[in-house]
Amino acid sequence: MKMLHFAVLFALLFSSSSHAADFCVAKLKGAGTPAGYACRMPSNVTVDDFVFTGLGVAGNTTNIISAAVTPAFVQQFPGVNGLGLSIARLDLAPAGVIPMHTHPGASEILFVVQGKITAGFISSSANTVYVKTLKKGDVMVFPRGLLHFQINAAGINSIAVVSFSDPDPGLQITDFAFFANDLSSELLEKSTFLDDAQVKKLKKVLGGTG
After folding, report:
1. Which residues are annotated as a binding site?
2. PROSITE patterns under this entry (predicted)?
3. Does residue 108 sit in the same domain as residue 143?
């Protein structure tokens, strides 16, 4: 009787596990949703869907912020779809900065692999500021949705690896959100307490109109 019970239990466990999906490699041709992308058929999945090789190459930092982010999010790395994680490389040239920004969909962990980076975030409850200059080997966490930034604190290129708690963490850079759109200067002046000259200067630098 005991052997019969064991055989039945084993059959039930095997049956349930054989029907469970091990992964959901993203079908990127379809539209993404907050729940992720549709799954590709397992017969169309290869080992390359679970490998990303781009983080070994430095990003191009010849831009207005002297910084670059090389993402391995679901759009570049379909194997992370549905797994609740992703990763990226951060390159900061001397004087480079990742301006104040948020990731609406994920918390972030930053690991410094070269140079020094001053990083910080602002709490939403009391606007408390948490700032630290990180050296090689240091790690800092940024809670989901909070404003945060990173600035090169060394005279050399600084590099970090950042991981996120979502395959598609989202990104909104505050400066670009304010000044790289067509929101009227008058409304921006009233909502930011900046004067007309400052608003129009920032719109010109960041490509905004109005």
Report:
1. 101, 103, 108, 148
2. GERMIN
3. yes
